[in-house]
Design a protein that fits this description.
The chain is an alpha+beta fold. The strands form 11 sheets. Strands 27-30-31-35-34-33-32 form a 7-stranded mixed β-sheet, with helices on both faces.
């Protein structure tokens, strides 16, 4: 960001502040000065007025001029094409030493005497402002013939280049830098009063020449004004400053608009009026979202994207009767995200650089300033009123605890001083009670998000050198978050699985679509399938871990393994490509290795053993019979895994036909939803010191009644002494007919005493009565 001292001085009075102090202060408040340069127009370069201009008698490209330099009228031969009578120009008089050690002397050019030199901007140490000689006007101050040009601060200026971080979009303007200096030096920022109803304002309203149509879902704020096209050229002040910041555009209207943008921070674009014309009398601008979701400006086609770019054909031309100025604001995060997502589909211009870092949201401020420039330097007319779309933006509010704030700063700062600093930075302190402040953040400060940012603002203004050095004190905060909890859970479950005798395996997230279909698993919807699969065999995303585990088990068996125990934690996808994490197990073959205890003849894995292994990993659970939802599962050995009434997965035996097809021994599979597996902190529970009693209750019930129904009947109003219960035997015979015998074991224990047999019998009688009433059970 390049600023000049005279430019800043138009916004804040720096007259009493030395340049060295100014540079030092900018550095202290975090606006790092990258370069400083002083323009030093040489002595004896004075303001002259061209009284007469005639062609050189012996040179077509030279002119012989009579120039009034105050002390005398001098004859000067000039080769510039743009020299004219009546111009005020810089004249290097005899004895002036110009840049490049070029000394002005009396000369004779092609036989004509010449006393001095009419100079271009670069010849007197200024940047290149225009082609040919520099033409002076009163935008730099009242022109006095014979007065040295170095006495005009606007030209003989001091240039300061400031390095800004990307989050300080509020300082991408002269006004923004002035605001910072206002807070640092405790000086007021100058204001520009609105003068719409004074000279230059047409009484005709904007609605007579321009209409606006817009959708309701616009995410930007916009204001439009219309002007008559009477802008012939730029004043020298604006030309000089635009040359210093190395910016120039194709028309003076665009130059005026950018100058106002650079001064105020409000993004101002200029448009050709003719491009929006619908008939001879009026034009219409349409605002709507384009195909990529960007808020855009349309005539019959898209002419600009708000905060992003503008097509060249929509810019104003000299021949137009009117031109349009647009002031815009869009949230920097919104526009940055959209441009990033669009990537190479969108070209950006200078507006995107400013809007993506955060521009000034007070649009009227920018238009008012531009209007004041037009009124001061041009004869154009301004149509009354504006067309506007204002998207309300709520200011951020941060609650501050002074103790925490001082802790962040590292030093106690007086509350009144903190409030004063915040107010100087235009923060609004809406509440100041005890040790708490409620601070409303100004809309132009997009970088302020939290208490730490507020602390940084205080330190900037207090001065880092004024903060007392102290030993570093680390206060570690609790860093346990959801990501850490998931990592910890996965790590511990893997360790438990290994301890239970399982080996971890890893498969690709890609699999074969035909295999998923063959075994009855869901597949990715065709419109969401992989466009370029890595191989024909891995042509889709997996929707289960079971097929991969089954393939690994088969490979291990083919290598001679008698018992295969594998597990995998990984991502699977549903048909819409939504991700889930599963923890899955497979157990195939013998339940244990050969040993003396099994006489070298181990048994095959069974349902109960497999379920117990899974329980040792994830904790207690219940099994509820269910019908399989895929073709791998055995239709009669398939159950839901339920923990505290929450279904966490499924466990099943491999279907016999699949087992035979793959030449596998008895095989069991368990698939669990990783996020539903309980993993909470262990909590101490009440523990009774009195002796527990295990009592069995055998009842005869209907064959079709499941244990789930028996359980529900028992659980209702269960005596608190019954700690848990579980089935231990089911017996069926011809003698029982359509009935079956069920034996349930109860753990009965009191917190207050050792129960007597009569009390235990009474509890069992109550349970039996419930079973009789609910499911027609009879004591066996």
């Amino acid at each position: 960001m390049i600023v000049t001292r005279s430019w800043l001085n138009e916004w804040i009075d720096l007259g009493k502040i030395e340049t060295e102090k100014l540079l030092e202060t900018l550095n202290k408040i975090g606006l790092e000065v990258a370069e400083y340069k002083k323009i030093d127009i040489p002595e004896k370069v004075v303001i002259g007025k061209v009284l007469e201009c005639k062609k050189h008698p012996d040179a077509d490209k030279l002119s012989v001029c009579q120039v009034d330099i105050g002390s005398a009228v001098r004859q000067i031969v000039c080769g510039a094409k743009n020299i004219k009578e009546g111009q005020f120009v810089p004249v290097a008089t005899i004895g002036a030493l110009l840049p490049g050690n070029f000394k002005i002397k009396h000369a004779k050019l092609r036989g004509v005497e010449s006393d001095g030199m009419i100079c271009s901007s670069t010849e007197i140490g200024l940047p290149k402002i225009e082609e040919g000689i520099l033409v002076l006007d009163e935008s730099i101050g009242r022109l006095e013939i014979g007065r040295e040009l170095r006495e005009y601060p606007i030209l003989n200026d001091e240039i300061i280049e400031i390095e800004l971080t990307a989050n300080r979009g509020d300082c991408l303007s002269i006004c923004g830098i002035a605001r910072e200096l206002s807070a640092a030096f405790d000086l007021p920022v100058k204001s520009f009063e609105e003068e719409f109803l004074q000279k230059g304002e047409l009484q005709i309203g904007i609605g007579r020449v321009l209409h606006m149509k817009h959708e309701n879902n616009i995410d930007a704020s916009l204001m439009y004004k219309v002007y008559s096209n009477d802008v012939e050229s730029l004043p020298l002040k604006i030309k000089a400053r635009l040359s210093i910041i190395e910016e120039s555009f194709k028309s003076p209207i665009e130059d005026f608009a950018f100058y106002a943008t650079y001064s105020t921070g409000v993004i101002l674009r200029s448009y050709c009026y003719e491009i929006f014309k619908k008939d001879e009398k009026s034009a219409q601008i349409e605002i709507k979202r384009d195909e990529m979701g960007f808020t855009s400006v349309y005539d019959s086609k898209k002419v600009s994207m708000v905060g992003v770019n503008q097509i060249e054909e929509s810019k104003p031309l000299k021949k137009d009767e009117y031109f349009i100025i647009e002031a815009s604001y869009i949230d920097p995060e919104t526009v940055s995200k959209k441009v990033f997502e669009a990537k190479e589909k969108v070209e950006t211009d200078w507006v995107y650089y400013r809007s993506s870092r955060g521009s000034e949201p007070n649009l009227a401020f920018g238009l008012d300033y531009l209007c004041s420039l037009f009124k001061k330097y041009t004869a154009l007319k301004i149509f009354a009123g504006t067309h506007e779309i204002i998207t309300e933006v709520s200011p951020k509010i941060i609650n501050i605890n002074l103790e925490n704030l001082n802790s962040l700063i590292g030093q106690e700062i007086d509350k009144n001083r903190i409030v004063k600093i915040l107010q100087k930075l235009q923060f609004e302190v809406t509440k100041a009670e005890n040790d708490n402040l409620v601070v409303k953040i100004p809309l132009f400060r997009h970088d302020i998000e939290n208490e730490q940012d507020i602390a940084e603002e205080i330190v900037r203004l207090v001065g880092i050198d004024n903060i007392e050095a102290k030993p570093f004190k680390l206060e570690e905060k609790n860093r346990i978050n959801d990501a850490y909890k998931e990592f910890k859970k996965r790590k511990e479950l893997r360790q438990r699985a290994v301890a239970a005798g399982f080996y971890e395996t890893v498969n690709y997230v890609f699999t074969n679509r035909d295999i998923l279909k063959k075994y009855g698993f869901e597949t990715i919807k065709p419109e969401k399938e992989l466009i370029n699969p890595i191989t024909n065999e891995l042509n889709t995303l997996r929707t289960t871990l079971a097929t991969g585990l089954l393939e690994q088990a088969r490979n291990n068996m083919n290598f001679g393994k008698k018992s295969v125990r594998l597990f995998e934690t990984g991502t699977v996808f549903d048909s819409d490509r939504n991700e889930k994490i599963f923890l899955s197990f497979i157990f195939s073959g013998f339940k244990e290795n050969d040993s003396v205890s099994n006489l070298g003849k181990p048994e095959f894995i069974d349902f109960a053993t497999f379920a117990n292994r899974i329980s040792s990993i994830i904790g207690d659970f219940e099994l509820i019979e269910t019908k399989p939802d895929n073709l791998l599962a055995h239709p009669y050995q398939c159950a839901k895994v339920v923990v505290d009434s929450d279904e966490v997965g499924v466990i099943y035996k491999l279907h016999l036909s699949i087992q035979k097809e793959l030449e596998l021994p008895p095989t069991y599979i368990c698939e669990l939803f990783f996020d539903k597996i309980p993993f909470e902190l262990k909590e101490a529970k009440k523990y009774s010191k009195f002796q527990p009693s295990f009592k069995d209750l055998s009842v005869v019930i209907d064959k079709n009644i499941t244990f789930k129904e028996v359980k529900e009947a028992i659980k209702e109003e269960l005596p608190e002494e019954v700690r848990r219960f579980y089935p231990i035997d089911i017996y069926e015979s011809e003698e029982l007919g359509e009935k079956k015998s069920l034996t349930v074991r109860f753990l009965i224990q009191s917190d207050e005493k050792t129960l007597e047999e009569s009390e235990i019998s009474e509890i069992l009688e109550k349970i039996l009565d419930k079973l009789k009433a609910k499911i027609g059970a009879e004591l066996r």
